[in-house]
Design brief:
two-stranded antiparallel sheet, Hormone receptor fold, 4 strands, mainly alpha, two-stranded antiparallel ribbon, disordered C terminus, 10 helices, about 375 residues, elongated, Rhopdopsin 7-helix transmembrane proteins
Length: about 375
């Protein structure tokens, strides 16, 4: 829809420029009464003698195809002015032949479905935002919880907070933008150019994924190495979590500015989108590999402890359920099933599940026991 709006604005601009040149070239030189030609925001009207004036429907309208026979009408009065509507200063115009009320019916249904997803995501992120703010506050105030492991958890929670804030801000901006239509030419020409909220969203989403990666790396270090100077590692983790996303968000921003600066940056040329998707996909794959390695270690420990089958199964399930939300393991599914691989209702179902897990999963972290070496 945003791409169609971009095309419409561009073609309408061309139509207006051609109209201006046409009116200058056909300016009447003789005497007599006539109405001045004009572009009235909708159609181009030539300099006309008194009477009913008709021009073809503007070709920039997306439902007007080449060879269409519809016309739009105005009336030039004997006084040399365009007829106005009754009890109004607005110029009368009959454009009924140029209207198509059913053209956007399928798009309107899609907009409704997407609105449901947006509301769901806003509700989920709002609940997560409030819960995580409380969690960070408690962990900050209680000195007994101050350690490298909990500092990493706090940074992960903060990345979720920033992600939730960026998502909610973007939705508010889009809602305001697409409900308050411009009233002048300058407003329409710059209507779909706001992109700051999109850049901040992509940065904080990237930070969120890389803090999940830091959680996985730290847990791996905790279980598989004998590193005792974990405080020194915290600075490196901070660089990975908050600094690494800049390495791909900045090039993506430059590429979008140069090659795709339209549609509030909601559309994506595939190669540009992979500037961001590539590093995030790689981080998800690394997290998944670490997850499998931890599960393998857990299996070996459980076998060594010679637990009963019931205890063995319960311990494995409990540890797995803790690790899945903590490390964002569900993202591996959506890394494989990308938007381009599904269409129609399947894409809607995919986005519904993804948005639900992404917006509500952080609340699971708050009620799950944080894994330690003793737990595993």
């Amino acid at each position: 829809m945003s791409s169609m709006l971009d095309d419409l604005i561009y073609k309408r601009g061309e139509y207006q420029e051609n109209c201006t040149r046409f009116l200058k070239a056909t300016l009447p030189t003789g005497t007599g009464t006539f109405c001045n030609g004009t572009f009235d925001v909708f159609a181009c009207w030539p300099h006309s003698s008194p009477g009913i004036v008709s021009v073809p429907c503007p070709p920039y309208l997306p439902w007007i195809k080449e060879g269409a026979t519809g016309n739009v009408y105005k009336e030039c009065t004997v006084n040399g002015t365009w007829k106005t509507e009754e009890n109004s200063s607005s110029v009368w115009r009959n454009q009924s032949e140029c209207e198509n009320h059913s053209f956007f019916k399928s798009e309107e249904e899609e907009v409704f479905r997407q609105s449901v997803l947006r509301v769901l995501s806003i509700v989920g992120y709002s609940l997560s935002f409030s819960s995580l703010c409380l969690a960070v506050l408690i962990m900050s105030l209680l000195r007994k919880l101050h350690c490298t492991r909990n500092y990493i958890h706090m940074n992960l929670f903060v990345s979720f907070i920033f992600r939730a804030t960026a998502v909610i801000t973007k939705e508010v901006i889009l809602q305001v933008t697409y409900t308050n239509l411009p009233r002048d030419e300058l407003g329409w020409n710059s209507y779909t150019k706001s992109a700051a909220s999109k850049v901040s969203l992509e940065y904080f989403v990237g930070c969120n994924y890389f803090w999940l990666l830091v959680e996985a790396i730290f847990l791996h270090t905790l279980l598989f190495t004998a590193v005792l100077t974990r405080k020194r590692l915290l600075k490196k983790y901070m660089i990975i979590g908050w600094g690494t996303p800049l390495l791909f968000v900045i090039p993506w921003t430059v590429a979008k500015t140069l090659y795709e600066n339209k549609s509030c940056w909601l559309n994506n040329i595939r190669w540009i989108w992979w500037i961001i998707r590539g590093p995030i996909t790689l981080s998800v794959i690394v997290i998944f590999c670490i997850f499998l390695k931890i599960i393998r270690l857990l299996l070996s420990k459980l076998k060594a402890d010679q637990l009963k089958f019931t205890d063995y199964r319960d311990s494995l399930v409990r540890a797995t359920l803790v690790l899945i939300p903590l490390l964002g393991i569900h993202e591996i599914v959506f890394t494989i099933i990308i938007d381009e691989s599904v269409e129609g209702s399947h894409r809607y179902a995919r986005n519904f599940v993804h948005l639900t897990l992404s917006s509500f999963q952080v609340r699971k972290l708050l009620v799950s026991p944080l894994p330690t070496q003793r737990n595993l």
